[in-house]
């Protein structure tokens, strides 16, 4: 990563922090769909000693590898597309029929508990699922040695469980009972 990419990556992490988890840290107001005023974001960050400007924010949004953020059509507001834990936000994601299987990347040390309890959303609003295995491997690696679980998504859907597709391609569901966890693909 060059210096510029590193800087944008660091700002992306900061935006995730305030737009997904702790808007109150900079007195930022998010609506239930997650939108915040860009001017207020810049002002709030400045009060906390962090300089942000519109050009940099636009660069972070445009270059973000996972398209984590979106800017409103009028250019005045920004939001995180998914991954929230703040109770200020309650996004209405598009409900979709999932593919036959989806994948969840986790760390091997969580497997025993997941086998017992199924997948839980934890502090976030949903369990996050990927359509492909490489993405799931990368997600799991954030917490240690990665393991990938195969989710019988279509079967869950047929039994009435709801699935949502975020604008950036991340699949979301409220929880995955253990009976829908298929073959474990271990140790990447
Ligand atoms: C685990 C990133 C024990 C779960 C990623 C995960 C994703 C359990 C951790 C997005 C469990 C929660 C979300 C149970 C679930 N017992 N552990 N019953 N049920 N877990 O970060 O899915 O880069 O809240 O497997 O790419 O890892 O930030 O969820 O390991 O899309 O944009 O509990 O965050 O996106 O961790 O990641 P997280 P996640 P960004």
TrEMBL record:
Protein name: Probable RNA 2'-phosphotransferase
Entry similarity comment: Belongs to the KptA/TPT1 family.
Enzyme class: transferase
EC code: 2.7.1.-
GO biological-process terms attached to the record: tRNA splicing, via endonucleolytic cleavage and ligation
SUPFAM superfamilies on file: ADP-ribosylation
Superkingdom to which the source organism belongs: Bacteria
Annotated function: Removes the 2'-phosphate from RNA via an intermediate in which the phosphate is ADP-ribosylated by NAD followed by a presumed transesterification to release the RNA and generate ADP-ribose 1''-2''-cyclic phosphate (APPR>P). May function as an ADP-ribosylase.
NCBIfam families per record: PRK00819.1-4 (NF002014)
InterPro entries hit by this protein: Ptrans_KptA/Tpt1, RNA_2'-PTrans_C, RNA_2'-PTrans_KptA, RNA_2'-PTrans_N
Keyword vocabulary terms for this entry: NAD, Transferase
GO molecular function: NAD+ poly-ADP-ribosyltransferase activity; tRNA 2'-phosphotransferase activity
């Amino acid at each position: 990563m060059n210096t510029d990419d590193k800087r944008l990556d660091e700002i992306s992490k900061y935006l995730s922090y305030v737009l997904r988890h702790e808007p109150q840290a900079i007195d930022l107001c998010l609506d239930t769909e997650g939108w915040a005023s860009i001017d207020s974001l810049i002002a709030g960050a400045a009060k906390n000693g962090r300089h942000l400007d519109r050009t940099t924010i636009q660069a972070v949004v445009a270059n973000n590898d996972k398209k984590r953020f979106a800017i409103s059509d009028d250019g005045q507001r920004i939001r995180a597309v998914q991954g929230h834990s703040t109770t200020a936000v309650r996004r209405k994601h598009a409900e979709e029929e999932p593919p036959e299987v989806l994948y969840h990347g986790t760390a091997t040390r969580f497997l025993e508990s997941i086998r017992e309890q199924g997948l839980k959303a934890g502090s976030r609003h949903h369990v996050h699922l990927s359509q492909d295995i490489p993405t799931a491997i990368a997600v799991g690696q954030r917490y240690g040695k990665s393991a990938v679980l195969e989710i019988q998504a279509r079967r869950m859907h047929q039994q009435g469980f709801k699935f949502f597709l975020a604008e950036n391609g991340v699949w979301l569901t409220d929880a995955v009972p253990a009976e829908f966890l298929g073959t474990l693909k271990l140790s990447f």
